[in-house]
Amino acid sequence: MKTLALFRHAKSDWSDARARDFDRPLNARGLRGATAMGHHVREGRWRFDRIIASPAVRVAETIEIASRAWGRTFPVEWDRRIYLASSATLIDLLREIDGDPATLLMVGHNPGLEDLIFDLVPDDGTCPLRAIVEQKFPTATFAVLECAVDRWADIAPGCARLTVLTRPRDLDPTLGPELLD
Fold this sequence. Notes:
The protein has about 180 residues and is α/β, with parallel strands linked by helices. Helices cover about 35% and strands about 20% of the residues.
């Protein structure tokens, strides 16, 4: 059994229309969301043998802020293939993981992370958390999948159960979607 945790980067700043997508930093809400999720992961006592992440600025800042809230720093393996990757690319990347760590945290972007959940968790009506992801996988969301494989090389569609799904608004309602008048 392998455990795959997914963490979508926190809310980014769109105020500079000239900035490259890769270089967008977090906005104020994103800083709060990353902090809240870092506290949540610490309180849940999740441990990760390896962390792989997109090198985009908003991902690096999410990890930095969340790590402060966790109270520890973690060595991160930066992999540009995660940046705006499809689910198929993410599955290929997982299959290449060396050393078969028991727990892996991947920090990245949508729609890749959301689609990865859709591919790995069967759509058979038995997972209410998957139904929530079908509605939206917001920024700074943290998910944990239990994968029924002995080696990362064996990861395949339908092999996982989604056991944890925490959105920032689950921790602080002010981090949820803005209400329309």
